[in-house]
Design a protein that fits this description.
heterotrimer, A: 112 residues, 4 helices, 0% strand, C: 92 residues, mainly alpha, 89% helix
Chain lengths: 112, 229, 92
Amino acid sequence: MLLYASVLLIVIGLYGLLTNRNVIKIILSLNVLEIGLNIFIITVGFLDLEEAIAPIITLQQRASVIVVDPLPQALVLTAIVIGVGTTAIGLSLAKKMYDKYHTFNLDEMGEE
Amino acid sequence: MKKILAFIFAITLGVMIILSLSNNELFTDFGDTNHYDGISSGYITSEVGGDEEPALVPVNIVTGILVDYRGFDTLGEVTVLFVSSIGVALLLGVASPKRINLNFKPNFMLSVGSRALFGVMFLTGIYIVLHAKTSPGGSFPGGAMIASSILILYLSNDTFRTDVSKFKLGKSLAASGFVLVGLIGLLFTGEFLANFHPFIMDTILVLIAIDVAGGIVGIIDNFLTEERV
Amino acid sequence: MSEFLASLEFINYIEMVVSVLLVVLAIFTLTMKSLIKSVLFLSSLSMLSVVSFVLLKAPDVAITEAVIGSGLVTTLFVFTLLYVHQKERDVS
């Protein structure tokens, strides 16, 4: 279920990215796409078993206990922090655009 | 017309993703992954790091991957955050900064309550960073929580500005300290960012937390200041 | 009674509800006319994705998303909109 929901989130984010003409809305769509992508990458490493646990175990237990895949989680952890960086850069660009054109709409900017 | 095209394009992408997921031998079904065949099993049993003592292997495997086995990736990621913080400062920074006047007068309860909340959030951030090896969390959320506690102070007082230059200094020192710790590993064992002493991992965790906190506080301060008229 | 509750497999129902709500909130985020409402729906979408991360057994990612995605990103959006509001008031 969550796999299909994440694919739908990616589709919705891409549609918003292609159709919106408002800068803030474009950055919002990018964030929606990013959340969907993060859930998708996590589902890749998920084990749907009762005995599978989160990857926090001591070294002695590691041979006997089944854990979910820790590698996608580490990759998503870095992706979230980088997402803040890209959002901050995009919003500061939007702020500069507003200072110059007094609007967020890309179509109205071109008329000047 | 443009919207219909965009709709068709997006739906096609979604259908193609779902079609490529089903009946694919390289890509297992949901909840049926077999990662014990791949590189992850090396991380889980800590074969990748060589024959290590139990004291050197963190209980939280994700922290182990981030700081030890894939420490070089984390160094690049810290650099990205550093560069984005510099980019925001370049776009929004001004010569003589002053707080944006939001016409927002916090009442007594809000200003006192947020100051009490500041202490709790700051200490929780430090706790999460220091216990990253044994409990969920890690240095990224810990550093972000420290930055959020500073943000609370910004909201509690209309004229408050933190000493950003100290955070900038801490951010730069932490990023260079990360490389320095890697070079220490290179010097002693011949591998960059080698994990040969428990102290190494603790140092890297604290340095990442300082770097993340400094970067995010710098971004928030740039968003809340403007040119003094 | 407790055996009956255990046989229902609650976790699957939670997963279904979270999946549907994720999609609904994403659609709300992109269709709201007012920008501040969109931003608040993005914040709640982020918060729900935290629940999905917990269901997928990724506590580290859940904590990071709760602090960063739902807290800091929302404040950055709100600061930008506040700045614009301030400028509009200065002009008029």
